[in-house]
Amino acid sequence: MDSDRHRLSRRRLLGGLGALAAASALPPLPARAATGEILTRALPATGEPLPLVGLGSWITFNVGDDPALLAECTAVMRAFFAGGGRMIDSSPMYGSSQATIGHGLAELDAVEQAYAADKVWTSSPDEGSAQIEASRQHWGVPRFDLLQVHNLVAREANLETLLAMREAGEVRHVGITTSHGRRHDAVEQIMREAPLDFVQLTYNIVDREAEQRLLPLARERGIGVIANRPFQQKRLIRRLEGKPLPDWLAETGAQNWAQFILKFILSHPDVTCAIPATTQVEHVRENLAAAREPLPDAALRRRMADYVAAL
Amino acid sequence: MKEWLSYRPGDFLMFSQRVYERLFVLHNEALWPLPLLALALGAALLLALAFPRPGRVRAALGLLGLAWAFVAWAFLWQRYAPINWGIRYVVPLFALQALLLALGLWRGGLKLPARWDLPRGLGVALVAYAVFLHPLTALLHGRGLAGAEVVGLAPDPLAIATLGVAAMARPASRGWALLAIPALWCLASAATLYLLDSPAAWPPLLAVLVALAARLLPRDSPPASRNSGSAKQNVC
Ligand SMILES: NC(=O)c1ccc[n+]([C@@H]2O[C@H](COP(=O)([O-])OP(=O)(O)OC[C@H]3O[C@@H](n4cnc5c(N)ncnc54)[C@H](OP(=O)(O)O)[C@@H]3O)[C@@H](O)[C@H]2O)c1
Description:
A: seven-stranded parallel sheet; globular
């Protein structure tokens, strides 16, 4: 209880700083954490601090009702929360992933700890509310922290539903998602026109198109950014594995390719968090550890990107 | 268009190889000892097709029809659809195939050749493969026989066995009608297994090619001068 109060007051304090940064359109700096704790970055809209690393659930958590695999996913979630993680991202498109998350949250009694991010994914907007309610029941949460229009499907009507829900206090934050660099023009337009809290897009050391327009716009508009596909669904790690890590790896704070890739993403000042997915406890720990000090500065980020491009 | 080009085939796969393979392990565990019974029924099916009599052929078709309905419910709906929402749209096709087989029974509308010719040989070989060899592909996956795909309980061997029947069925129009859904399933399954990097992608694909070849091969039909009575003896 005491530690809860401590966490709250610390959150509020960091939140205030974050809101200040948002108000002045400065890139939000990651909050300095006590040694070993993972870094957070303030959500521009509210100043609420979010850990820099979240957890995706595409494919990895789609395990049906297989008891052995459900237990493995729960173990991943346990390590995630134990390591200070909060945001878990899912979608009604991801098969049984929502139910897997619900199973884990119930087993770990961790509903309070989670920042629950889900999506609406229907081309029949009339069904949006029912779909969201079904998703909520799978998760077993009282309400979602974030609801996003998945891949801009029926974007106008679905966004309208989500904004009305936010107005009514049925969801805290609202966003849109895209991936693989698709439809950035449409994303940009919505970011300009709609009062979004979050945009989710693909950003990593080789997929950097978002740096051109969307990340600066997110900062300008006070919109949080969730980076999906940090490892290109592992293809990027497979591509780099077996290639030499740079001699100056220690400067980045990374210990392997996965952390090298993550640190590049997390050190972009306009990225609120990245959401790597994994089936392995060891990997979730490794990913969370990438959100610890040090994070590369702008010069080192350039060097990292050049190094990977030259491989 | 540009957006569609940015997708890779693998982007449409929403589960891992491990999860897919475990489906069969859990399915067999839940149904045990039904896999043994299904194997025995598969052997009986093979015998009925190798030594056909009208009654045996009807029983074989009835058994296959029941198996399509059972697999639609017990495997596709209960196990596969939760991890692959596209399967919901496949379940009605499996039900339709069960119906087609039942219609084949109706007034003996579907017949199988009694005399050996190449199409019949290929058809029986497909059924034999589906019953006895396909379960062994679990060893290629490295999941052991606990995860074997058994005819009558899992969709791939069932579709392959049905392709065998469709390859030799007469008249041709009914044979083709019986072939369409299993062939589509086998192609979809081969694509899925290929994307999962599984060496077991080949058998369903080859089964479709064999069934198509068997259907297109010239049949050992009775000479035109024969009367209709002797033509009837040529089929069961
Ligand atoms: N349009 C959208 O809304 C959209 C689109 C795409 C993605 N997303 C979201 O973003 C999330 C992340 O994207 P993603 O799942 O496509 O791909 P990803 O996170 O880039 O990659 C996931 C893969 O990386 C591997 N991995 C994770 N940590 C690792 C580590 N430390 N070392 C080695 N391998 C590691 C995992 O394998 P192991 O299991 O072996 O660790 C997993 O196969 C998704 O899960 C989803 O929530 C949203």
